[in-house]
Amino acid sequence: MYKEYISYILIVLIIIEIAFTQPIISENAIDYWTPEKMLNAKLLHLPGIKNKTINNSEKANLFASEDENKNPLLAVGQFFFTLDGIDNACTASVINTQNGNTGMTAKHCLYSNGAHSVNMIFCPGYNKGNTSYLGKILVTNASWADGGDYGVIKFDYNGGLQNKTGSFDWGLTPSYPVRIATFGYPVDGDVNCTHDGKTLCIWRGVADQHKHGNISVPLLLGHGSSGGPWVMGNNPSNPKNLGDVIGITAFGNESHTYSYILNFTLIRELITW
Ligand SMILES: *[C@@H]1O[C@H](CO)[C@@H](O)[C@H](O)[C@H]1NC(C)=O
Ligand SMILES: *[C@@H]1O[C@H](CO)[C@@H](O)[C@H](O)[C@H]1NC(C)=O
Ligand SMILES: *[C@@H]1O[C@H](CO)[C@@H](O)[C@H](O)[C@H]1NC(C)=O
Ligand SMILES: *[C@@H]1O[C@H](CO)[C@@H](O)[C@H](O)[C@H]1NC(C)=O
Ligand SMILES: *[C@@H]1O[C@H](CO)[C@@H](O)[C@H](O)[C@H]1NC(C)=O
Ligand SMILES: *[C@@H]1O[C@H](CO)[C@@H](O)[C@H](O)[C@H]1NC(C)=O
Ligand SMILES: *[C@@H]1O[C@H](CO)[C@@H](O)[C@H](O)[C@H]1NC(C)=O
Ligand SMILES: *[C@@H]1O[C@H](CO)[C@@H](O)[C@H](O)[C@H]1NC(C)=O
Ligand SMILES: CC(=O)N[C@H]1CO[C@H](CO)[C@@H](O)[C@@H]1O
């Protein structure tokens, strides 16, 4: 009995150590984010990359088109939040769960140097500075762990947001290199699209892994793309099959952008709702 109690405590302590959950009651977040604030939100700095002059002709062979407006993609959106007193924006996506109200973004969009994001909202299908018909969705919980720059968020939407947006599957571990599509709202970087931080930019190309470490794509996805999904099997002509998330835009160097390898066991544990 006593032994059982001890191991129970131990398990609880381990869970507390690896998983931080931040329950935030922010009913005002919907009102807080006026259209003006959304347009003026700072696109969160992508750790590691220095701002450089964009020269689109450098990597012309890598470019994909942003023109996917015929099939508005609602499973990706802009994620607005206040961190350390500053109004910021990142990218987030809806992932396939039983509760229907779960998304993913980067950990550094949820937590930084002891500060937790507040006023969190998700705008599915945000594009060219406009919300979709789904408007602003309140984000009521966020959870993440040490050792990877990604986390899960909980949407407050009756009936499950993914019923309206569709969702990305997850759980596949590809062998590298692998063809993927990346999604984000950058203000700069190498993707051939309107880098205004308000327009969804999609890049299709190959992600590779070096020495069993993090995975990378050979271009700068740009500031504001943090938290965007890296998706394999995404077929733009079949919106019912969005593909599988295998990465989340996390950081960059002078030439490449990185994602951590996602630990799907951990992600399952982080979804406590
Ligand atoms: C780099 O770009 C980001 C995003 O536009 C901006 O917030 C930041 O201030 C810039 N940093 C420098 C050193 O110019
Ligand atoms: C961009 O890079 C290409 C190839 O390096 C070069 O030819 C071109 O002059 C550059 N354009 C600008 C505007 O710097
Ligand atoms: C960038 O996109 C535009 C519009 O889709 C296209 O006309 C142009 O050829 C593209 N540039 C490159 C270098 O791929
Ligand atoms: C929203 O989209 C409409 C066209 O559908 C455009 O006229 C308007 O400028 C957009 N709003 C913003 C803030 O860009
Ligand atoms: C999604 O909608 C269907 C009916 O359209 C409903 O049966 C199901 O419960 C909904 N999913 C969630 C998570 O609420
Ligand atoms: C992934 O990148 C981070 C940040 O540079 C680093 O701390 C970590 O060790 C890397 N992980 C692997 C498995 O290479
Ligand atoms: C950036 O990352 C790529 C891929 O990991 C690597 O080949 C390259 O050397 C890195 N560049 C710098 C300046 O570290
Ligand atoms: C993934 O997460 C689980 C649960 O937290 C953990 O037990 C496992 O060691 C992790 N796997 C890797 C490869 O880090
Ligand atoms: C699982 C979990 O942390 N749930 C919390 C989500 O946030 C609400 C408040 O918005 C809390 O009441 C829940 O406990």
TrEMBL record:
<dbReference type="GO" id="GO:0006508">
    <property type="term" value="P:proteolysis"/>
</dbReference>
<keyword id="KW-0378">Hydrolase</keyword>
<protein>
    <submittedName>
        <fullName>Serine protease</fullName>
    </submittedName>
</protein>
<keyword id="KW-1133">Transmembrane helix</keyword>
<keyword id="KW-0645">Protease</keyword>
<dbReference type="InterPro" id="IPR009003">
    <property type="entry name" value="Peptidase_S1_PA"/>
</dbReference>
<dbReference type="InterPro" id="IPR043504">
    <property type="entry name" value="Peptidase_S1_PA_chymotrypsin"/>
</dbReference>
<feature type="transmembrane region" description="Helical">
    <location>
        <begin position="6"/>
        <end position="25"/>
    </location>
</feature>
<keyword id="KW-0812">Transmembrane</keyword>
<keyword id="KW-0472">Membrane</keyword>
<dbReference type="GO" id="GO:0008233">
    <property type="term" value="F:peptidase activity"/>
</dbReference>
